[in-house]
Amino acid sequence: MRRRIFIALLGGAAAWPLAARAQQPAVPVIGFMSGRWPDDSVHLVAAFREGLGEAGFVEGQNVAIEYRWALGHYDRLPALAAELVSRRVAVLAALGGELSALAGKQATSTIPIVAGIGGDPVRIGLVESISRPGGNVTGYTVLSSSMEPKRLGMLRDLLPGVTVVGVLLNPNFPPSTSQLQALEAAARKTGQQLFISKASNDAELSAGLDSILQQRVGALLVCADPYFDTQRDRIIAFAAQNRLPTIYHFREFAVAGGLISYGPSITDAYRQAGIYVGRILKGAKPADLPFVQPTKFEFVINLKTANALGLTIPSGLISFADEVIE
């Protein structure tokens, strides 16, 4: 008798945790997709998680994240978006550039999307307006693709004697047309010549870098583009090997050995994406969340690289810098 009672009690106790788990709500799943590589995005994922934490969500505790990476191959993005939508994620974080965001929007009109782009979200048809996006998409723009003329001017201040500047441009990046138009207009005003080298994949990048060498340009401007972010080390090594002064769009390039960089803080942007995802998980609607624009820009000079190139950085540029790497 006692044995039967003990077994009955044991069975009931064993069932309690299962019953409790069955009554708990399912942990929401975030779909995280990017046109970049995971290896060069570790700090960005950390910033995204930081933003989520500020909103009260911790991966592995009260939220799960499924990651998908296009590895610089933009044609993979639609399939990645469709896969995450089929998983019925609670929110889709479509980061790493315009094509990631557009692929997400194409894949779903109902799942909330937090997008991360470099240009104008209204111009590419992503949202209705900056202040009130409408629909199921909000996010941030770092405006990096609209700052090419500013970077060209910095190269001119650094190297006033250079008449021909090479430009590395990805023609498959949606803002590339406006990037090129803005650069050409700025160059005309100052009488500079531009040599445009276009590349959207590894083979084209090899050919494009070779053509830059053949043209004997005096400096290089790498246009903002997620694919070039995935090729950061390769481009920096090319510039160093060929003693070519180069300006980039994100701080990460200068930290990794590039000469100078000027642009918004991409880590701040990913942190903001995490905050927005958290707010949506709590019930906010993308249509009511304004598209965030950058307020912090970073000008970084790598003096070690300048010394290796035999360059003297003007004191005015150094005083203007937010960070000097020695």
Describe the model.
There is one protein chain. With 326 residues, the protein is α/β, with parallel strands linked by helices. The protein has two domains: 29-143 and 265-296, Rossmann fold, CATH 3.40.50; 145-264 and 298-325, Response regulator (Rossmann fold, 3-Layer(aba) Sandwich). Helices cover 44% and strands 18% of the residues. It contains 13 helices and twelve strands. A seven-stranded mixed sheet has the order 7-6-8-9-10-11-12, with helices on both faces. A five-stranded parallel sheet has the order 2-1-3-4-5, sandwiched between helices. Helix 2 (42-54) packs across helix 11 (266-281), helix 3 crosses helix 4 and helix 5 (148-158) runs parallel beside helix 6 (176-190). The longest helix has 22 residues, at 2-23. The protein is elongated, with a radius of gyration of 24 Å.
- CATH superfamily grouping of the largest domain: Response regulator
CATH topology category name of the largest domain: Rossmann fold
* Low-pLDDT regions: 1-24
Task: Enumerate how many helices there are, as a single number.
Answer: 13
Instruction: Let me know the largest β-sheet.
Output: 7 strands, mixed
Helix content: 40-55%
Query: How many β strands by DSSP?
Result: 12
- Rg (C-alpha, Å): 24 Å
> What is the annotated CATH architecture of the largest domain?
3-Layer(aba) Sandwich
- One letter per element, helices H and strands E, the order comes to HEHEHEHEEHEHEHEHHEHEHEHHE
| Beta-strand content bin | 15-25%
User: If you average the pLDDT, what whole number results?
Assistant: 90
Strand order, biggest sheet? Answer: 7-6-8-9-10-11-12
Span from first to last CA? 81 Å
Shape: elongated
What number of structural domains do the residues give?
Answer: 2
Structural class determined from secondary elements: alpha/beta
